[in-house]
Amino acid sequence: MDVKTVCLGMLDDGEASGYDLKKHFESTFAHFFAAGYGSIYPALSSLAEAGLVDCEEIPQEGKPDRKVYRITDAGHQHLLDALKQPAPSHKVRSEFLATMCFAHLMTPEQIETVLESRVKDIDRYMSMFHEFETTGMEEWPGGMRFVCGFGKAMTEAMRKYIEENKHMLTQQTAASRSAAG
Amino acid sequence: MDVKTVCLGMLDDGEASGYDLKKHFESTFAHFFAAGYGSIYPALSSLAEAGLVDCEEIPQEGKPDRKVYRITDAGHQHLLDALKQPAPSHKVRSEFLATMCFAHLMTPEQIETVLESRVKDIDRYMSMFHEFETTGMEEWPGGMRFVCGFGKAMTEAMRKYIEENKHMLTQQTAASRSAAG
DNA sequence: GACTTTATATATCGGAGTGATAGTATGCAT
DNA sequence: ATGCATACTATCACTCCGATATATAAAGTC
Question: What would the pLDDT profile of B8-17 be if each residue is shown by its tens digit?
Fold first, then answer.
């Protein structure tokens, strides 16, 4: 399940341009599968070349031509095949946790700053989830609701853990020890 | 905070070879910062070239020479600077959730298989965390304890969410509807 | 005794993805 | 009038991932 396949899945729901897909990646998919133009445009080109999507160029004045992609029958079949993968991965890449591993080399102020930025990020996600819930999430397919609920549950658990355990980081670091003599 | 910096941080705790670091990445760092030889060896070469680590080649019979890396003063200073980054990221890349977004295109059996493999993965992580706890985690620096507790809390929350919400996925999919007529 | 797996140790390479940058136009605010 | 957001495309250098290659010994298994 790479960017190509996710794009294909999004297009299975209706035609769209690369720009449209990017907005999708930034909203409902943001918390578990980010992708930028650098992956989306090459993905769409490659899908078109493989005949899994059709591309219609819609000329526009002033702006660049809008390229609208539509999934083909072969594309739909390819998607169905891709969904047969029995053990899809779930990976975390956290510079935050990597940094916290070395908390004993940081000052309490540095640690506090990092935690604050993490909590801000968490709050951004929480308001995003809240917005989903208040803008017709009930009509989404079950899978999408499951996925967003998953993100919300994880984000809440993260905030709770940080609040309840940050004392482990700020108490008695190497920096505070040397500062205190 | 890239692989290079994490290697530097590990070496701040004592000299090690690329092979040693890999084992570290596979145990305590596995749940939030995976790295393979394809990232570790180039990282070490680059750190050595920049003078942030020293390399001592220890000849061995039969096996390839063991290259032991040791952090330099410049390297330690570089690490301290890297830890000043105020907003380190925390990213999830989940083919699992991406797949679940398209649950309406899957059979209940396919969905069940995917969930089972995820739960197995969760159990592997849980027994890993359990092993950490029973093998002298109390002596670890606060940061490492925080990070492992974080992983455990997230993993537990994940299992709980899946158990309580998987019904959202298996009920009434497109496949089950058409199978039922 | 032969066979496979596991552990020790290095390293490279193709392909995938990231983040920054670039170009070009409209419209809206300050 | 200058900057900023929105709409739309696209590329490029770099980093990272996963698989693969190479070589040997110990330990388990059939």
Answer: 999 999 999 9
